[in-house]
Design a protein that fits this description.
By secondary structure, the chain is of the alpha/beta class. It has two domains: about 140 residues, Leucine Aminopeptidase, subunit E, domain 1; about 325 residues, Zn peptidases (Aminopeptidase), CATH 3.40.630.10. Helix content is about 35%, strand content about 20%. It is built from 13 helices and 18 strands. The longest helix is centred in the first third of the chain and has 22 residues. It starts with a strand and ends with a helix.
Length: about 475
């Protein structure tokens, strides 16, 4: 979407639809006094009222009480306006930037909400309408030129988030490990500072990537270990990003219930977020060096699949009892985390749809953060708060590690007791990062069916904005 900021009056802009925010209990803005419909408009939060002035269509968007306005409310209202623009078949939209204490933050929120709110996934519609509704192609912010940089950042990461949503929504017969690898190569081809390396099954076998190979052995689709490097010239420690890329998860021999299994095409949401965050970071030219490692496979049941009770050797050399084949994400992430450290990552953030337990604990409002480093954990939580992708830190404790010890091997991939499922899974991962500062983000509750106005009930692309915001802070 084309996004520009222009310091002009409402009557000077050419757009199919204009949007103006109004506050509850306050008069309508001066520029629309006398406009048809303005006299009945309400400022209640999320209320949209049509108006007309000078032959142009206007939507008056209720922002609620002025003292309650924040970036999240602006994202939500912007998404509602974007959907209204779609209903009206508007191809261009102009937004009058509301008066706030932070114009840059307001601009970022409006751009983000507009782009995410106008998203739709219709790749597999076989018979599109003869006259398809036009997509919203341009957004003009009527604001001071000083917000242009913030608007551009928001455009980059919101569009990246929508690309991640495309990957999440694509069925597993189209989105395979090879598909994710091809996307990585496409990102590298489009950015001089990015390089890609794709490791296939033969190389993985030579290296001893026991976790990734074990999970993949139940199906015919070959695994990939995807590595992206971004050389942004940063002076700080190299950031490592790891994303879980299970393109379809049946649970393996420990088969999942059939109801809702179709949604397991989104078990690569961490990989999607990492891929598109790297693309956005490169597009923005952030001064940071990073290494992204994405282990990707399907998890299928068959006569060749790994069995409950089997023992595997991870890339690190540690042995693991696979007591539940549906706890496969931690097996492939363990190899990837070890490799990220080996490649030179000096602090690591991983994103994964890892546990159903996190949905019980935090729902779809927060993703869980578990970390071995207080400073990195605080940076991740702060980046989530600034971007609107909220996280909540959960603790680590030696007693959780005890639950992950194996009976005949070093570790078990499933805790010996049904306690603290999200934390014990993270405790397992911690075994593979050594002394490297590391933060794990469990996005199982926030990657899909969040229900916010700008993400809807399907793919959310959660993590892209958070990672880009973290990279922005670390590159400052």
């Amino acid at each position: 979407m084309k996004v520009v900021a222009r310091e002009i009056e409402l009557g000077e802009v050419e757009a199919d639809l204009a949007a103006i925010g109004i506050f509850e209990g306050e008069p309508v803005p001066e520029e629309i006094v006398g406009a048809t419909g303005a006299e009945t408009a309400k400022g209640a939060y999320k209320t949209l009222s049509p108006a007309f002035a000078g032959g142009g269509r206007i939507v008056l968007a209720g922002l609620g009480k002025r003292e309650e306005l924040d970036a999240e409310r602006l994202r939500v209202v912007a998404a509602l306006v974007a959907k209204e623009a779609g209903r009206l078949e508007a191809g261009s939209l102009a937004w009058v930037l509301p008066q706030t204490d932070d114009d840059a933050s307001a601009a970022e929120a409006l751009v983000t909400g507009t782009i995410l709110g106008s998203y739709r996934f219709d790749r597999f519609r076989s018979e599109p309408p003869e006259e398809p509704a036009p997509r919203l192609e341009s957004l003009t912010l009527l604001a001071a030129d000083g917000v242009a940089a913030a608007a551009e950042i928001a455009r980059a990461y919101a569009e990246a988030q929508n690309r991640a949503r495309d990957l999440q929504s694509t069925p597993a017969n189209f989105a395979t490990p090879a598909t994710l690898a091809a996307r990585a190569e496409e990102i590298a081809a489009g950015a001089e500072a990015v390089s890609a390396e794709i490791l296939g099954p033969e190389r993985l076998e030579e290296m001893g990537m026991g976790g990734l190979l074990a999970v993949s052995q139940g199906g015919p689709v070959e695994p990939r270990l995807i590595v992206l490097r971004y050389a942004g010239g940063g002076e700080g420690p190299t950031l490592g990003l790891v994303g879980k890329g299970v393109t379809f998860d049946t649970g393996g021999i420990s088969l999942k219930p059939g109801a809702g299994m179709d949604e397991m095409k989104m078990d690569m949401s961490g990989a999607a977020a990492v891929l598109e965050a790297v693309a956005a970071i490169a597009e923005l030219g952030l001064a940071i060096d990073l290494i992204a490692v994405i282990p990707s496979t399907e998890n299928m049941p068959s006569g060749t699949a790994i069995k409950p009770g089997d023992v595997i050797t991870q890339y690190s050399g540690k042995t693991v009892e696979v007591n539940n084949t549906d706890a496969e994400g931690r097996l492939i992430l363990a190899d990837a985390l070890t490799y990220a450290v080996e490649l030179g990552a000096e602090r690591i953030v991983d994103l994964a749809t890892l546990t159903g337990a996190v949905v019980i604990a935090l729902g779809s409002t927060y993703a869980a953060v578990i970390a071995n480093d207080d400073e990195l954990a605080a940076e991740v939580v702060a980046a989530g708060a600034r971007s609107g992708e909220l996280t909540w830190r959960l603790p680590l404790h030696p007693e959780y590690k005890e639950l992950m010890k194996g009976k005949v091997a070093d570790l078990s991939n499933l805790a010996s007791q049904r306690k603290a499922g999200t934390i014990t899974a993270a405790s397992f991962l911690e075994e593979f990062v050594g002394n490297t500062p590391w933060a794990h983000i469990d996005i199982a509750g926030t990657a899909w069916d969040v229900g916010r106005e700008y993400t809807g009930k399907d793919a959310s692309g959660f993590g892209v904005r958070l990672v880009v915001e973290l990279a922005r802070e670390l590159s400052a």
